Structures are given as structure tokens and as C-alpha cells.
Amino acid sequence: MSAATSKPANDAPYRLVNDVEFGTGVVVQAFTNLYGCSIGDDSRIGTFVEVQRGARIGARCKIQSHAFICDGVEIGDEVFVGHGVMFINDLRPAAATADGELQTGDDWELIRTYVEDRASIGTGAVILGGVRIGCGALVGAGAVVTRDVAPGAVVVGSPARAQAAAAAR
């Protein structure tokens, strides 16, 4: 990443941008929530996207509208994240503790997720915490990824399963 800035390259209304490290040339559309994250050079963030504290997005990525990228997600360079993709960082979500008290940040375990360079994630996919999506892999639209995806693999379905080798892109 080259010289970091504190704001995106474009102007758009209705954005929450707080404590974000931007690379150069980053474009962020309206109606986004970005806080405590980093976004690499020349990446594009669509409308209605949330990127939480601790998430990292590499250079030259496209994050389409309505995507949710939570704490613990690291996205490599040149990754495509389709519309409505959801990342999950908690394998045992609950609202309250065993004592009936509302959970706090100390009451759950952050599960990290990695998306390697040049991977593509189709519209509406759900990526569970603790997985690695390999370099150049393709996750089909609507897939539910519950385990690692090998580099260059194509996975579809719920749960996502590998398909025959795809033609070179």
C-alpha cells in the first residue's frame, strides 16, 4: 500500500467514515459504514457496505453493495466480493451469557477469515469464520462456505462443495 490517507478519493453523501486507513485512489460510495479498518490502493466500495473495525481489504478490490465485512476478515489484493456477501466471525453467536446478561466483547471468541489474492465471491454468499479462501478461487452465488477453499477451486451450494476444474479465466 502506498501513502495512506484519512479519506477516500471521491465525495459521496451519507457515509460514516471513522478511523479508516485508505490507500490512494480508493472510491467509497454513499450509505456506507467504515470504521477502524484499512482499504488498499484503488479499491472500490459500493453502497450500503459495512466494514468493521479490524477488517483489512487489499488493493484493487471491488466490494459490491450490501456486503458485510466484519472484524477478523482479511481480504487480499484484486478480490471481488459480490452483492450481499456476509462474513461471519463468531461460530457460537448468542445475545446473552449463561447468566442472562447481555454479552459484551469479552464474552465471545473472534474467529478470523482469510480471502487470498484474486479470489471471487459471488452474490449472496455466506462465509463462516475460520476459513481460508485460496488464491484465485471462485465461490458461487448463494454458497455457504463452511470449510477452506483450495487455491483455484470453484465451490457452489450449501454447504459449498468443490466443482470440476473451471476453464481458465
Summed up, what is this model?
Helix content is 0%, strand content 29%. The chain is mainly beta and 169 residues long.
Structure description:
The mean pLDDT is 93. The chain has 169 residues and is mostly beta strands. The two termini are 26 Å apart. It contains no helices and 21 strands.
**Oligomeric state of the chains present here:** single chain
Q: So what's the overall shape?
A: globular
Strand order of the largest sheet: 3-6-9-12-15-18-20-21
N/C terminus separation: 26 Å
The percentage helix is under 10%
If helices are DSSP runs of H or I spanning 4 or more residues, what is the number of helices? 0
Number of strands: 21
The low-confidence parts are none
Average pLDDT across residues?
93
Task: Report the structural category.
Answer: mainly beta
State Rg.
16 Å
Strand content is 25-35%
Order of helices and strands: EEEEEEEEEEEEEEEEEEEEE
Strand count, sense and barrel status of the largest sheet are: 8 strands, mixed
Task: Spell out the key features of this protein.
169 residues, mainly beta, 8-stranded mixed β-sheet, globular
Helices and strands in order, then pairings?
Elements: E1 15-18, E2 21-22, E3 27-28, E4 32-35, E5 38-39, E6 44-45, E7 50-51, E8 56-57, E9 62-63, E10 68-69, E11 73-75, E12 80-81, E13 86-87, E14 113-115, E15 120-121, E16 126-127, E17 132-133, E18 138-139, E19 144-145, E20 154-156, E21 161-162
Parallel strand pairs: 1-4, 2-5, 3-6, 4-7, 5-8, 6-9, 7-10, 8-11, 9-12, 11-14, 12-15, 13-16, 14-17, 15-18, 16-19, 18-20
Antiparallel strand pairs: 20-21
